[in-house]
Amino acid sequence: MNIDGKLISAKRKDALKQEIEKLKNEGKRIPKLSVVLVGNNQASQTYVRNKDKACAYVGMLSDVIRLDEQISEEELMQVVQQLNQDEQVDGILVQLPLPSHIHEEKILNLIDPQKDVDGFHPINVAKLVLGQNGLVPCTPQGMMVLLDEINYDLTGKEVVVVGRSNIVGKPVALLCLHKHATVTIAHSRTMNLASLCQRADVLIAAIGKPKFFNRDYIKKGAVVLDVGINRDENNKLCGDVDYEDVKDIAAYITPVPGGVGPMTIAMLLENTLKAYYQREEKKNGI
Ligand code: GUN
């Protein structure tokens, strides 16, 4: 069965819209997301446009700070510091990748952890490892919502995550572990990958290779979450999973597009609202 990420994301966004409407009616400050976009990367431009549109849809304030590809690291650091200090800004997202002359880590580490809606700051990563309440990366969080939506209980289940990135693989593995799954993180150099994946009750495909996972990798009745966004031989969008080959074996599968992808933006908005509430509480000394 298909897991309709587009529908689930729309539902979450509608709930956010109502919540923000309520803040407005109560005369409260409106949450704000600031996105920093450096350079002209085509995919980044599209992502940023979609984030901006989603903010407008739910009634959140947003602004996109577009900066020249040639901006110095020093100047970019100043932009981030200004956003850290701006009382109206609840969420800061610096779109990746950054140009090669800029030290990505240096910029991400500078973002105020309370405004770090990507959940990439070491403080938020540490909180995730420890199971403390911090800001959690959006795509992994979106996958947990999808599992919730199909009422899937991870307790004691075997989860295989293929991909070990800081943005997806590592955080989603931790989230599954916190939900009492037995988790294996595999990657492109894992030996006997197919037989390992065959064991998975939940397979999380985040390897970045178009249609890599065919039915030989899937246990009958497994849940397959596909994080890939690739182009196939006909330049059509596709995931890391060969959807047509796998769909009859899997109990549940996310399509690409329309699966995990749309959840990321919904979670970004939820993180921004969470950051807003936490900042307001702190301001009011609660
Ligand atoms: N580039 C691709 N995905 C992401 C993401 O989740 N956050 C940021 N900041 N940049 C990205």
Q: Helix/strand-derived class? A: alpha/beta
CATH H-level superfamily of the largest domain:
NAD(P)-binding Rossmann-like Domain
Fraction in beta strands: 5-15%
CATH class category label of the largest domain: Alpha Beta
User: What's the overall average pLDDT, rounded?
Assistant: 97
CATH topology description of the largest domain = Rossmann fold
Order of helices and strands: HEHEHEHHHEHEHEEEEHEH
CATH architecture field of the largest domain: 3-Layer(aba) Sandwich
What is the global morphology?
Answer: globular
Q: Biggest sheet: strands, sense, closure?
A: 5 strands, parallel
Tell how many strands the DSSP assignment holds.
10
How would you write the strand order of the largest sheet?
5-4-6-7-10
- Name the bound molecules: guanine
Our Rg estimate from Cα atoms comes to 19 Å
